[in-house]
Amino acid sequence: MTKKEKNVEITKQAKKQLEALNQQDQDNIIAALYKYAKGDRVNIKKLKTSENDKRIKVGHYRAIIEEADKIYVLSIVDRKNAYRRL
Predict the structure, then answer these.
(1) S-S: 17 plus which of 31, 34, 38, 76, CB 3.0-4.6 Å?
(2) Which of 70, 58, 45, 71 is CA-nearest to residue 18?
(3) pTM, entire model
């Protein structure tokens, strides 16, 4: 049985954070998000703060996502600041 590919939706805040990064980091983060959306394995972990929130680890950055019928990218931040607001 194959998994259905989910759509990825990037919030306005996450898009702004992504655009502030250099091109290589942007490409790596986007590649990891779409790899996960296709059902491939990535470095992902469920967050304890929420039922549906997860983080994808990409180099020094963390993409905080919420998974429902789509994958919503909530924020993209440096690892040292990733969990302060959660």
Answers:
(1) 76
(2) 58
(3) 0.85
38 vs 16, 17, 82, CA distance in Å?
24, 23, 24
Order of strands across the sheet that contains 8-10: 8-10, 71-78, 61-67, 53-58, 44-46
Domain count, the chain: 1
pLDDT in tens, 7-46: 999 999 999 999 999 999 999 999 999 999 998 999 999 9
CATH number at residue 47: 3.30.2310.20
pLDDT, tens digit (0-9, with 9 covering 90-100), for 56-79:
999 999 999 998 889 999 999 998
